[in-house]
Automatic annotation (TrEMBL):
Domain of life: Bacteria
Any one GO biological process: glyceraldehyde-3-phosphate biosynthetic process
Full protein name: Triosephosphate isomerase
Binding site for substrate: 9-11, 172, 211, 232-233
Entry keywords, A to Z: Cytoplasm, Gluconeogenesis, Glycolysis, Isomerase
GO CC annotation terms, alphabetical: cytosol
Length: 249
């Protein structure tokens, strides 16, 4: 049985005060034995969030990581820096990074490796746009996104990675993929990995992201190849986020 994981991606939302109140409210709703729940907060709040989550069941993650280890890369944050703040996870290749900030398949692969070199678990995001889906390119886009990382880091690296399928057309639109639409792609991804290494494929956590809410989480998470979710908007509300987490158990 694979463990489930529910990750909140706060994106560029919140404040110092909101970080404190949201972390505290989520932690208050968890039991000490709970596992598989993480918040990915803006970089500047990692220090506060690290203190708030230390010794609690709530894990911490970043929303990105540099594709280089150090040096003259103005504005970037390295994996070793993240490591100083108890970051267990780092999202890489989110579609908003790919679309607005030019992250390429190659740079995403470098970010993925940089995270792993510091013992941080990358949450590798893949997914097609609406246009690509309508042109029957969903699987070829996902192949390209995954192959760039597989070629650079190897199949074994996925023993310590998470994949998130996030169809771009479902992100922040309120238009979620149906349970079956999501499962179809998750199954495709798992079979792709299984063709290279069955054991890695069997244990790989594949999360679904895109308008996951408390009322649709249960159906999505019940699908055989969906192992949890990467939650945007709904992770900014502690009660709703905890409900989504409960749906994963
Ligand atoms: O992009 C997402 C998580 O990374 C999904 O965002 P929403 O849940 O707001 O659609």
């Amino acid at each position: 049985m694979r463990q489930t994981l529910v990750a909140g991606n706060w994106k560029m939302n919140g404040s110092k005060a909101a970080t404190e109140s949201l972390c505290k409210a989520i932690i208050a709703g968890l039991n000490s034995s709970d596992t598989g729940i993480v918040v990915c907060v803006p970089y500047v709040y990692l220090s506060d969030a690290a203190k708030l989550t230390e010794g609690t069941p709530l894990d911490l993650g970043a929303q990105n990581v540099a594709d280089q280890s150090s040096g003259a890369y103005t504005g970037e944050i390295s994996a070793s820096m993240l490591n100083e703040f108890n970051c267990k996870y780092a999202i890489v290749g989110h579609s908003e990074r790919r679309t607005y900030y030019g992250d390429t398949n190659e740079s995403v692969a470098s970010r993925y490796s940089q995270a792993q070199q510091q013992g941080i678990v990358p949450i590798l995001c893949v997914g097609e746009t609406l246009e690509q889906r309508e042109n029957d390119q969903t699987f070829s886009v996902i192949d390209e996104q995954l192959d760039a990382v597989l070629n650079a880091a190897g199949i074994e690296s996925f023993a310590k990675a998470v994949v998130a399928y996030e169809p771009v057309w479902a992100i922040g639109t309120g238009r979620t993929a149906s349970d079956e639409q999501a499962q179809e792609v998750h199954q495709y991804i798992r079979q792709k990995f299984a063709a290279k290494n069955q054991a890695i494929a069997d244990q790989l956590q594949i999360l679904y992201g895109g308008s996951v809410k408390p009322d649709n989480a249960k159906g999505l998470f019940a699908m055989p190849d969906i192992d949890g979710g990467l939650i945007g908007g709904a992770s900014l509300d502690a009660e709703g986020f905890l409900k989504i987490y409960s749906a994963s158990k």
